[in-house]
Amino acid sequence: MRYYLHNAAIWAAMTLPGNALAQDARTHWVTSWYAAPQPAWDSQFVLPMNVPAVLDHQTVREYVRISAGGERIKLVFSNRYGKAPLAIGAASVMMREVTRVVTFEGARQVTIAAGATVTSDTVALSVAPLSQLKVTTYLPRRTAITGFHWGASQRISIAAGNASRTADFSNAARVEGRLFLSAVLVDALPSGRTVVALGDSITDGNGSTPDADRRWPDFLARRLAPHGIAVANAGISGARLLKDGMGERALARFGQDVLGQPGVSDVIVLLGINDIGWPGSPFAPAEPMVTLDELTAGFRRLAAIAHINGIRITVGTLPPFEGALEGTQFAGHYNPQKEALRLRLNDWIRGAGIFDAVVDFDAVLRDPARPQRMRAEFDSGDHLHPGDAGYRKMADAIDIDAIVARVAGAHRDAAPAPSQ
Fold first, then answer.
1. Fewer Cβ atoms within 10 A, N terminus or C terminus of the chain?
2. Calpha distance 358→351 (Å, rounded)
3. Would you say 394 and 383 are in contact if contact means Cβ atoms under 8 Å apart?
4. Per its UniProt record, what Pfam families does this chain match (predicted)?
């Protein structure tokens, strides 16, 4: 089997003109779907992983809805947090009744070194915008799960043996989360672009209807699909701006999860509620409160990194969270001191003047009669995460005109000069 290596520098290089991934055979590739990898944790953490600790001679089926369409696709598999090589014995992708075998430099099998990522060969599969795909991966060896994606309001199926070309998974076990598939790339027009949503569980879709693709990046994808613009969801539940949580801190993962996405032009950032809420809660009981200066310094660094790399950055204000996780074993996320910090941070985001745009999620979701609390019709019920209606409202609040105009400008720049 072939071994593949990858690192952050290579991920960042993917977007450079002439790179084999970004452009091959006159094709421009963009990330049409994404699930940000995160490291596994042990039983001492307050939340269970909800996926098996080990897989052995089993097949995983993942269900994804892409954003932008194309005539061909590539699949990206991640072993970013692996502690041992990851062997893939077979892989396939299905859309409706059409199934395609997935290969890697012509071979049906591949081994991905620990810390590495592999991109498949081009798959001849025409996919319309917002198409549903089923990606099936057979793991022929004992495989410890040391990297995965938690939650995502999406379940995967796990079947015994090699079921990589099996259509019916109705008797397979179902678990919530994602495993080794991390991205779907589509070929696109030269003007094609990807918007990355970088965030925490609110971006990952906690509180939305499971398996229904009703996270705010999904609703944004519906708005942008007619313009040929893709959306990659880089939300991780428990993610924080400044410190590692249930994933690496944003300042550490920005290179791979944002800059490493082929075709990226924009990033929309919604982070900070876990930086504020975790200290003193069951998630980080001994951790001191974060300060406003620390948070603003982190956002300044993100803005600088984005702009140095030619990425347009939009930052969202933090939604209200009074009563967050009340009555659960995770109570302690909210208190008046944390609320005061949220308000001060939101005021700073609105007036900082260092971002290309601001989307006021706080104003959109708050209860006018009690602005520290989310409006009931937008609340999933835990007072921290919106439900389907709230996520739709968030997506509708994003001004897409500048995003669309930038892509239209790129299309004009890419067009051939008129003949004389």
1. C
2. 9
3. no
4. Lipase_GDSL_2
